């Protein structure tokens, strides 16, 4: 598969997240499309690696999103946890903008070392 329409840029207000479901090669993928403090859009897994709850319901501050359940924060650029109790990263997906269309490729998660 390739990038698919996740939402429109106007659907994601500043420093907030929008939960979307996209179809991947292995089935439905829950994605959080997030607008950071600088206005940049990111696509990460919507499922916290610690508590298995929706990250899109958490607070966005700068380039980080906080899980509402236990307070773990994740870097929107890398998916790496920056505070406990989470210790495993969440997937980050390639995102592109075509006019107003936000496109995400859930079959090609980005990897960081």
Please explain how this structure is put together.
It is built from no helices and ten strands. The chain has strands at about 5-10, 15-25, 25-35, 40-45, 60, 65, 75, 90-95, 95-100, 100-105. The chain has a four-stranded antiparallel sheet, with no helix packed on it. The protein is globular and about 35 Å long. The two termini are about 25 Å apart.
Short characterization:
The chain is mainly β and 113 residues long. It has strands spanning 4-8, 16-24, 27-35, 41-45, 60-61, 64-66, 73-75, 92-93, 95-98, 101-104.
Strand content: 35-45%
Largest sheet: 4 strands, antiparallel
What is the helix fraction of residues, given as a range?
Answer: under 10%
Q: In order across it, which strands form the biggest sheet?
A: 2-3-4-8
**Measured distance between first and last alpha carbons:** 25 Å
- The quaternary organization reads as single chain
Rg is 13 Å
**Order of helices and strands, N to C?**
EEEEEEEEEE
What is the 3D form? globular
Outline the fold blueprint.
Blueprint: E1 4-8, E2 16-24, E3 27-35, E4 41-45, E5 60-61, E6 64-66, E7 73-75, E8 92-93, E9 95-98, E10 101-104
Antiparallel strand pairs: 1-10, 2-3, 3-4, 4-8, 5-6, 6-7, 9-10
